[in-house]
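Troubleshooting entry. Yesterday's outputs looked truncated, so today I'm pasting the complete records for two proteins to confirm everything comes through intact. If either block looks cut off, that's the bug. Protein one:
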Amino acid sequence: MSTLSIRDQRLAGATMLPDDFIDYYMPRANGDFVKIYLYLLRSVHAQTPAPTISSLADVFRLTERDVDRALRYWQEAGLLDLKYKAEELDEITLLPVSQKLHETRKDPVLETPAAAGSEPAAETQVSTARMKELKADEKTREEVRNILYVAHRYLGHPLSPTDMRRLLYLYDNLHMSAELIDYLVDYCVSRGSGSMQYIMKVGLAWHDEGIDSVKDAKARNNLTTKNYYAIFRAFGISGRSPVPGEIADMDRWLKEYGFPMKIIEEAAARTIKQTGKPSFPYAERILSAWHEADVRRMADITALDEQHKTVQKEQHAAPAAKPRQSAGKFGNFAQRDDEEHRRLVQELIRNQ
C-alpha cells in the first residue's frame, strides 16, 4: 500500500477549520467522514510519516473501503481533489472551504446511501423481535442476561440496542458460547479497544478460523502474542506492549501478507539499518513491496536484490535524470535505497 501525497492550498502553519465547514458541511456528513477529514488537515503539518489508506483504516477502526468512501464523499463535496496512478490513490489536495461552493453543489449525503459508520448491516445483528425472544426464552435468557451484563461491565458503559443485537448475533447465529463471547469482549478491551465494531470484527474472524471455545481462542492469541514480541525483538523494542496501530501492522504482515518470521525480521533489520530506529511505517513499505513481488522465501529477496543492483548499474551508466520536485509536505521523503527498491520492484512486477 503506497503512501499518499497530500498538497495543501490553504494557509500553512496551523490546523485550521473554517466556520463554513462547521456550519454547512459537518452537520450533513457522516461522523467517520468528518473524523477522516479532520485527520487529513492535521496530517499536513504532522511530523510523522505520510498516511496510507491502510493506516487511516487502522486509526479509526474502519475498513479500507470505508476510508475510500469518506475520501470520495469529500471529493464530491468539493473539499478534496484525488489523483490516481495505475488505479491507486496517489495524491490528495485539500481545497478551500466556502459557503458559496456548498450552495452550488449537490449534497453528497443524498448520493451516498451506504455511508461508512452507518447502521450495521442487518446480517450482523439479530432483529429486535429475535432479541426479545432470546431474552424471554427459558433456555437462553440466563445466558443472554450474562452476556449483556458482562459486556456492560467490561466496556464501562450501557449497551445500546444495536450493541445488544450485534453481540446476540454471535450467540444466536454463529453459535458462540456465552463464555467465548465474554472472553472476546475481555480480549478486545485488553488490547485497547472497546469499540463494538472492533469486537465484531475479531469475533467474525475467530468464527472464520473455526475457533469455538475459550481454550482455542487463548491458544490462538498466545501464539499471536509470541509472534508480536518476536517482531518487537527484531526491531530492538523491549519494556512495553504493542499499541493497537502496531498490532494492526503486525497482523497484516503475518496474516494478510502471510510472511514467515524470517522475512519480517529481515525487513526489520533493513529498517534499522536505513533509519537508525524502529519504524513500522518504513517496514510496511518494504514488506508491501515484497508482497506485491510475491516474495515467499529469503531466496526471493536475494533475487530481487540482484535485480535491483543490475537496474542501478544501468541507471548509473545513463545520463542523470532531473530530480523530481516535491508535491508538498508528504512529498518530502528522502529517496532512500529501500524506497527506490520498492519502485523498482513495482516496475519489475509490471514488466513480468
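Protein two, checking that the full record survives here as well:
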Amino acid sequence: MIFHVLNRGNARDQIFDKAADYAAFEKVLAETQAQVSLRILSYCLMPNHWHLVLWPLQDGDLGRFMQRLTTTHVRRWHLHRQTVGTGHLYQGTYKSFPIEEGDHLYTVLRYVERNPVRSTLVDRAEDWQWSSLWRWEHPAEHADRPTLCPWPIPRPADWIARVNRTLTKKELEAVRVSVVRGRPFGSEAWQESTAKQLGLESTFRSRGRPRKATENDRA
C-alpha cells in the first residue's frame, strides 16, 4: 500500500535555511533508504515542511523507515547548529494517509510536486531543485540523493505539464482532509475497506467542517 507522509517544523518554524540543509536531508533520506529497503515514489522539501510518497515492501517498514529518518535528521540538524537539547525540531510525529492506485495516486503526486508553485517559490514546478520532479529531469546529478522507484502506474508523457496545472478546489480539499485527518485517499468503496483494514474508521467521524482549501494553501 502507498502512503503520503508529511511533517512540519515545530510551530511551523523553518527546517531548511539554505541549500546545504536540503542536501543534508536528502542524504539522510538516501542513507535511510539503504538501511530500510523502501520505495520512494515522490518527495518535495519545503522551507518548513516536507512531503514523501512511500511504497513499503512489507508491514512495519513505514514505521521503521520514518523513525530512522527523523531521528537521524534531528540529531544531525542540532549537531550542525550546536543546539542539542534546546527543543523540538518537528511539530510532532509525522502524519500519513494511504492512497489508492490510479487517478487518486496521480492527484497526490501532483499535489506533492506542485508545492513549490503553490508557495510561490518558483514559477514552474520542475525548477524546484529539492523535489522528485527535478530529480526525474536530472537523474545523473547528485548520486547521494534518494533513489526514485518506478510508479505502479504509468508516468504520463505530459507529467510536467500536469503538475504545473492548477489543482481544482475539489482535489485540494480532498487531499487536505486526508492530510489533516489521516483519511484514506481514494474511491468511496476503497476508502471504506482500507479504513477497516488499517483501523482508520475514526478518520471519517465528523470533527467540524474544515475550511475550503485554495491553491495558495502551503501544505
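Both blocks look complete. Sanity check on protein two: The chain has one domain: 2-204.
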